[in-house]
Amino acid sequence: MSKAYFNYAGKRLLQAIVVILLSYVFTFVVVSILPGDPITNVLNNPQNGFTPDEIKEIIAAQGLDKPIPVQLWNAFSGFVTGDLGLSMRTNRPVATLIAEVLPSTLVLASAGLAVSLVLAAIIAYGTQFLPRRFGQGLLRGFPSLFLSVPNFVIGLVLIHLFGFQLGVFRVIEPDSFWATLFAAIALGIPISAQIAEVLIANLDHESGQDYAAVARGRGLGQMRLFVMHLLKPSSLPVITVVALTIGELLGGSLITETVFGRNGLGNLVQRSVSTQDLPVLQAVVSLAAVVFVVVNLIADLTYPLLDPRVKLLGTQQRRPTTADDSSLPISKAVTP
Amino acid sequence: MAPQDRLTTFLNHPSSPLLRVKGLSVAYGTHRVVSDVGFELGRGKSLALIGESGSGKSTIARAVLRLLPGTGHATGRVEFDGQELLGLPERRFRPFRGRRIGFVPQDPGNSLNPVRTIGAQAMEAAALLDEPDKALRKAVVLETFAQVGLDNPQRVYDSYPHQLSGGMLQRVLIGLAVLPRPALLVADEPTSALDVTIQKRILDLLSKLREELQISLLLITHDLAIAAERADSIVVLKDGAIQETGSTAMVFSAPSSSYARKLHGDVPALNPDRYRPLREPGFRHLGARRDKTPKIEVSGVTKNFTVDGKVLTAVNDVSFDVQAGTTHALVGESGSGKTTAIRLLLGLEQPDTGKIAVGGEQVNGRSPEQLRSVWRHLQLVYQNPFTSLDPTWNVEKIVREPLDRFKIGTYQERTLAVRKAFADVGLGEHLLSRKPAALSGGQRQRLAIARSLVLKPDVIVLDEPTSALDVSVQADIVEVLLSLQVKLGLTYIFVSHDLALVRQLAHTVSVMQRGRIVEHGTVAEIFDTPRQPYTRSLLESIPSGAARLARTQPLQHRQIFNEEKIA
């Protein structure tokens, strides 16, 4: 790992921090200027019988009487130090609420990612080994099929089929192994479609490259050509795709949890939305932004280590030709 | 092959050729690209398939190797060493690939897996040897790398493809192809992506290996001069059908088909004086040079680029003058600074030192607005007409754009100017409403020339204007350019690596190497009495069929191994 790599990594890290900061500020401001929150709703309702003094006291305790920039600063410094404030609905620390449900969601999301990767690999790599006409056409049809069915429908079908009809898992025990597996399948299927599409396109592209024909000309069979030559270059871009699907994975988890009745982040978000529990929502959204940015940061940092062609900014290696028109602004077109 | 083995081979197959192709047809889906092609290639002999793009020559090579892409399907017979290949199931054909038939591809830059080391890929070829010991196999690889003239085999072994130059990659690929000692080497345009001096080294290497290892060579090329120099016999193809076939001497001394005669006439290397009448006026301008100031004056121009903190001098103290109405050629290999020189001339880059003047007006040091007045008189025709024209615009809009940009004339006058430029380059008006995609390569380059003419410039910079075109189309474009020069008194700056072409059309020449002009003079001075060794090496690299045909002795192998190094 060179100095250039550390420069690059440093820059990327800085960018990531800026993005997290901006996303926090953005959500905070949007949430603050939106009308209505549970406390003022309750307090302003005359039926509830709060006196003006009581109202003032509660608002001061919540810090809602301070100007928005001050509130933002208080909330953000708390966020950085792990103090996410108190839930308006339950008056418990938001950090505790999230910590209770996060493991369940992480298990589901990781399992969903694993399912989608395995499925995508089976579909995409399978196209390389099936006869062109029949099997390949079938496999190539899967991604668009998967994409067009929402994951809650898949979830309901799986629950009905495997939970009620076949009795593979008990629907009332959503955290059991089998229930988790089927939830992960429901979550992973639409995501696998995107990964498979990219993989198939890359495989088609790479197997049409000159080097693949030349390698076959060296006497390589289909299997070795695939394993030795096509697998790596066609799979590398998947790192980026997976990083980009993290958002969907999280969003999908929330839906899937609701469908399967799992007690996870989805449940928490759902209740917080319906009660306008702003501190919890702010924390969950910011946390999602952090996860998304971190995963993409990891993808960006891994890529140059895996692909020898990737030139890091400002470190382009020169081809050792006698001199160097090739690197100057007018690039030479390769004549056909 | 050991002498005893060769004897055995000859005793077993007394007269049969190594490769016999009979009635070969290839179709993609229902679209037939090769029809009824047949030829024979003897043991240790070389045969060239020549033709222009679309002639089916590469398709034939791929059919022999059974590497046709996609829906390609071959019928007919391909016999290798007495064994019919096309009908074999893939499983039984695979042992032929690599082991018996080696393949050297066209574009070395794309022919090795970019994310694996050269060594890892070389070991695949080495796996075809019957050698169980991995260390020994690696030794064979390194030995082969040395044999093909790679200086530091271990370093090449550990490199990734993007770390090597095109010439080195082609050596690697040739090495991988010959490593399992095949009987036949199929080389598909092995040098068309390389510089001319490197081309010569690669061709020399192929000839040497062919003699040392008794390998037959099936050479696919668009370059007649290469075929004349390197092949024993020749098959001329056009539109997938054979036009002519015979020994090289026969095809070149007495071509029987009209197509072969035309091709022969269009190859610059074989016809240095083809455009003599059209060039005469230019030479007269040159003779009268004392009376006038030169149209273009470049003096002491230097341009540095900073890359990774290192200073690279792309153009170093370059000076030349060009008289009005003449063609000045800048020649040199890739990286010699030709492109930077013309970018400076066009004002697209600013020189660090020196002065550039066109028509007495200084170009460098101008603001972008001031440059516009220079650009009216200074136009560029770009190298590749397949990428230099906006595919979404119709032809008329493309030619008209400069007039609109410079707000010249009324609407009707602009329309007339477009039509006139169109007529000047010999394009019919019925093409005006088409999109570039509906035009052939030659028509596109004419279009690019028309676009540059429409502003009535005095100077046109031609950046390798024919290098993306077939040789017959190239001859066409050259003729258009020279006629326009005579008719309109244009001054050309012609950038090229093709010395044979330069000889055909230039009046004065500057030879560039590593950013400097190492030699300059009239075309006769440079080509007939070159003084610099670099110029001589460039000239010697021009493949010349005539030289080969005159030779009765087999090729003399000079110093083939070269000084290319991994930087």
Pair with the biggest interface: A-B, 44 and 70 residues
The low-pLDDT segments of chain B are 547-567
- Rg calc of chain B: 26 Å
Number of helices of chain B: 22
**Ranges of chain A with pLDDT <50 over ≥5 residues?**
313-336
Number of strands of chain A: 0
End-to-end separation of chain B: 36 Å
Task: State the helical fraction of chain A.
Answer: over 70%
Instruction: Trace the largest sheet of chain B across and list its strands.
Output: 6-7-8-3-9-10
- Largest sheet of chain B, described in full? 6 strands, mixed
Determine the structural class of chain B based on helices, strands and strand pairing: alpha/beta
Question: Shape of chain A, please?
Answer: flat
* DSSP helix fraction of chain B: 25-40%
Let me know the average pLDDT of chain B. 85
Strand content of chain A: under 5%
> And the CATH topology of the largest domain in chain A?
MetI-like fold
Quick summary of this structure?
The complex is a heterodimer of chains A (336) and B (567). Chain A is mainly α.
List keywords for this structure.
heterodimer; A: mainly alpha; 12 helices; B: 567 residues; alpha/beta; Rossmann fold; 3 domains; six-stranded mixed sheet; 38% helix; globular; disordered C terminus
Describe the secondary-structure layout.
The complex is a heterodimer of chains A (336) and B (567).
Chain A: H1 3-33, H2 38-44, H3 52-62, H4 68-81, H5 94-127, H6 134-147, H7 151-165, H8 177-207, H9 210-217, H10 222-260, H11 265-274, H12 278-306
Helix pairs in contact in A: 1-12, 5-6, 5-8, 5-10, 5-12, 6-8, 7-8, 7-10, 8-10, 10-11, 10-12, 11-12
Chain B: H1 3-12, E1 19-28, E2 31-41, E3 46-50, H2 57-65, E4 72-80, E5 83-84, H3 90-93, E6 101-104, H4 118-126, H5 134-147, H6 153-158, H7 166-178, E7 184-188, H8 196-213, E8 216-221, H9 224-230, E9 233-238, E10 241-247, H10 248-253, H11 258-266, H12 276-287, E11 296-307, E12 310-322, E13 327-331, H13 338-345, E14 353-358, E15 361-362, H14 368-375, E16 378-381, H15 395-406, H16 411-424, H17 441-453, E17 459-463, H18 471-488, E18 491-496, H19 499-505, E19 508-513, E20 516-522, H20 523-528, H21 533-540, H22 545-550
Helix pairs in contact in B: 4-5, 5-7, 7-8, 12-18, 15-16, 15-17, 16-17, 17-18
